[in-house]
Design a protein that fits this description.
about 325 residues, Peroxisomal Thiolase, Chain A, domain 1, 2 domains, 5-stranded mixed β-sheet, 11 helices
Length: about 325
């Protein structure tokens, strides 16, 4: 049975950087207020005139392919994780397939929000292990800025999110390396604690002027409830991965968590008694890019040579759904 490993990574953020000072033009806030609550100093926004997640995924994919030493012709399957697809239909994976000229291969969108990259990694893991595919493109890409209420009313959520894309090539190898295990969970009873209510298929029409006036099209988050669950689920799912492989935190070189909020990352680091250098964070630069945070962080970890061949890495996520997941890899 072949082992699935990450053969290449890439990332991309839009050209427009939006600092905390920039947000002060739209809402009653300050750099100190945002940093204290989230750890974020800046984020990047798409141009708002047709730059969707499939567009952000193009340079990220090209970089991942180059780093893997592959071309579009080598890819057998596309998995695209996003909570903000370019259109209601078709999926962003199909759009990316066309824009980059991939062969007539399968193109799958998955909607698991912040946990999307790890859910996608688990799907890729199974396809590689069965021998059906040898190289899979896994993308996490988001344009969250257009789902934000950029006013004082919406600031608790709006200051957190940014746009970006990360990509990874999952390849088959006979060597002793790669994905050791993945672990997926959900608890749908909390779906409305972090959701975007409309447009909704259960409503006819799916969206109305009244709904827009009521601002139901913007992402809503119950920050306290999300925080309460996140600080429980992150350690749980990380320990689940370690236990499944007979390891402890002493065996881990790097933990790469979903970049939800720096306070959450700090809480998890302290609860698991990990030194700060073992838990990667870049939320201060990009904000929360949802399905893109882990692949962007992974790319930076690789580029900065913070991990080497044979090191053990844990990736973990928690978010809307609620969903949470982890993956343990031997680099």
């Amino acid at each position: 049975m072949p082992n699935p490993y990450i053969s290449g990574t890439g990332f991309y953020v839009p050209a427009r950087e939006v600092t905390n000072q920039d947000l002060m033009q739209y809402m009653d806030t300050s750099d100190e207020w945002i940093r204290e609550r989230t750890g974020i100093g800046a984020r990047f926004f798409a141009d708002g005139i047709g730059e969707g997640p499939s567009d952000l995924a193009i340079p990220a994919t090209k970089q991942a392919l180059e780093n893997a030493g592959l071309t579009v012709a080598d890819i057998d399957f596309i998995i695209f994780a996003t909570s903000t697809p370019d259109y209601y239909a078709p999926g962003s994976a199909c759009l990316l397939q066309d824009k980059l000229g991939f062969e007539l291969i399968g193109a799958l969108d998955i909607r698991v929000q912040c946990s999307g990259f790890l859910y996608g990694l688990s799907i890729a893991e199974q396809y590689i292990k069965t021998g059906q595919f040898r190289h899979i493109l896994l993308v996490g890409a988001e344009v969250q800025s257009s789902a934000m209420n950029l006013t004082t009313e919406g600031r608790d959520t709006a200051v957190i999110f940014g746009d970006g894309a990360g990509a990874a090539i999952i390849s088959a190898t006979d060597e002793d390396r790669g994905i050791l295990s993945t672990h997926l969970h959900a608890q749908g009873k909390y779906a409305k604690e972090l959701w975007c209510e409309v447009p909704a298929s259960g409503l006819n029409p799916r969206i109305t002027p009244e709904m827009l006036k009521e601002k139901r099209q913007y992402l809503y988050m119950n920050g306290r409830e999300v925080f309460r669950h996140a600080i429980q689920r992150f350690p749980e799912v990380i320990n689940e991965a370690l236990d499944a492989n007979g390891m402890t935190t002493d065996d881990v070189t790097m933990v790469i968590p979903h970049q939800a909020n720096y306070r959450i990352t700090q809480f998890v680091q302290k609860r698991m008694k990990l030194p700060p250098e073992k838990v990667y964070s870049n939320i201060h630069k990009y904000g929360n890019t949802t399905a893109a945070t882990i692949p962007i962080a992974l790319h930076e970890v690789v580029e900065q040579k913070l991990i080497k061949r044979g090191d053990v890495i844990v990736m973990a996520a928690f978010g809307s759904g609620f969903t949470w997941a982890s993956a343990l890899l031997k680099w």
